[in-house]
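WARN retry 2 of 3 for item q-0093 after timeout on previous attempt; input resubmitted unchanged.
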Amino acid sequence: MTSMLPSVTQSNILTALRSFLLGILPNGVEVIQAQDNRVPEPSAPDFVTMTPIMQTRLETNADSYQDVSFTALIAGNTMTVSAVAFGSLAVGQTVFGVNVADGTKIIALGSGVGGIGTYTISPAQTIATEKMASGSKIFLQPTKIVVQLDVHGPSSADNSQTISTLFRDDFAVQAFKASGFDVTPLYVTDPRQLPFTNENQQIENRWVIDAHMQANPTIRAPQEFADQLDITLIEVEAAYPAV
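OK item q-0093 returned
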């Protein structure tokens, strides 16, 4: 079964969020993912933990198609592309061809970055130069992601105020855009104070904020297209003589 992972992963979303938080909070404030077993609290007095708590579909799937037609040869695990008629090659795409083994996938880029050049494929095989294809059906599900931010420490009230102010501004939109991931901030809830009891049964200051973001992950499935038809004529009388 072909693995189909979303183009925007939870790791990507948390990376974008963490980058934003580190950029607006004072130096020394740590930002980590929560629910990590056998890991103690950060040693810094002020820190933020991130806990993904919800993924909500925003609309019905939007499906699209992308076809790629190219000429290449394969020697072992290396596919050498000599010409591209249309489309662009990428890691994860399935390669189709008359002599190409079923399930052949591009697993790494070589000198090629979408067009002419070399690519690493699997499984290994040997194929002379021929026309190949690498079509896909693309499924897009816009999704709202909610991450709970637990803002700890003596400065937690001030830090949560900074987060709630800047997250709901174009400042945050531009910061997330700079991450390179298809994630954008929507809004945050108002900070609420929820005391935290640590491992020594001591009460610590903690303010909780729910950060709402939109991600637009796509999932690709292999799709063959009939770009060219080879028609062979059969003489009916010759094939089926009259009785």
